[in-house]
Amino acid sequence: xxxxxxxTCFEKDFKFYFQSNLVYLAMLIYLMLSAGLLLYASDFxxxxxxxxxxxxxxxxxILAMVIPVLTMRLWADEYKYNTLxxxxxxxxNTAAAAIGKFLAVWLVVGIMLLSSVGxxxxxxxxxxxxxxWVLVNYGLTFLMAGSLCAVSAAAAAFCYSAPAAFLSxxxxxVLLSVTGFGSWIEEILPDSTRLIKLTQxxxxxxxxxxxISGKVSLSSIAYFVIIMATALWTGAAAVEYKxx
Amino acid sequence: xxxAKNIVKFLGGKIILQGLNFCLKKGEIIALLGPNGAGKTTLxxxxxxxxxxxxxxxxxxxxxxxxxxxxxxxxxxxxxxxGGLYPDMSVYxxxxxxxxxxxxKPQQFVDNLLYLLxxxxxxxxxxxxxxxxxxxxxxxxxxxxxxxSRPKILILDEPTEGLDPQQKLGLRSFLKQxxxxxxxxxxxxxxxxxxxxxxxxxxxKDGRLVCDTTPEELKKIVPDNNIESSFCTIIGG
Lengths: 244, 237
Prior knowledge:
The structure holds 2 protein chains of 2 kinds.
Chain A: H1 2-19, H2 22-40, H3 53-80, H4 83-87, H5 94-114, H6 117-123, H7 131-157, H8 162-178, H9 181-188, H10 193-201, H11 204-212, H12 218-243
Chain B: E1 2-11, E2 14-24, E3 28-33, H1 40-47, E4 55-60, E5 63-64, H2 69-73, E6 76-79, H3 91-101, H4 106-119, H5 135-147, E7 153-157, H6 165-178, E8 183-187, H7 191-197, E9 200-205, E10 208-213, H8 215-219, H9 227-235
Helix pairs in contact in B: 3-5
């Protein structure tokens, strides 16, 4: 029955995105940032060979700013409209609700990623890109986006209002995805090889870079799955705590 | 039979419910009275399993609520004082969502929906988004959503708040009828409502149950037979 509850919550939140037009706003911001940054901030025209690698490399930073737009109302609206009391006085558990909500955002982000196919076609005018490489990287970007969705949803679970949820989720996602703390440690403490290696192992940007550079390893995939699972558990625990 | 034994609840480090004991039986409309901050909503939330009591136990037909939570949810419905609706959903979508989370079978949903739309006069707004409804309609939609599973225990926090006199009368007669084979617990500030619909009154003050009686007995506490004066005497106002 828990799976059925999860699907019910997923369906409700997925429908909400299209009813409230939030998804179109997020998609617009996403496409503008993706195309704008790819063409004007990544030396796209200076490279002698156009390639789509830069597009994927920019994704953690762009998604870190766009995903909070989608997750900010995830729990805030439940608090605002007092629907949490309705939801949790039904035979449904917090984990099912949290996972259902997360899956709804993740699928919306997946649709958003698909909307960027136009950019790929545009790049294809200048160069020939390996279709299978692009598809694999879209899949890996979707996985990485899942971990940002979970982190952003967890941050939203701690907040009672949508603006607070947006700000905290953006801060958390940006800190996680684009700061590259592995390279910071390398600059501050260049001699601490062990520490550098250790921090690089936890570096979001580096893990994603390795994946899209073709070094797909189980540990990198596990890294994103672990972030996702931990954030989901934290989000569910936050809702449970607030409820009691 | 719903039995509460020594219920204790802390919120934000403050004790809200201080050892409440009572028993609610089928066929009764019980009015929960008390000044603001007496703990009425907290008690209702504990009975609805939204909060877990920090002490004591609640049993339904001898079964403990904490261990039989999911089974209990099937016989319970709770309507909060405010909100409870998803504004972007239409009334039908809301009812459908409620039926799904209550695990109702499709036929059961259709039958109950038709009955509730007619009884609560919601047929004209079935396709309307919840955000466009008036306060009275919103209250009735939340109530209809709660009643979809025909619960044996109905807990309503300030159910007539914001309703016009005609809607109040309609709701009262509906609850009277509904309470024949169910427990209906309502929290209210309106004494007229207590006199008109309650079979039993529980008065709370500072997280304690200070009176458990009938409206008729409550009135007799003061010489002028006035329920409001009796209530004020009990709570020391």
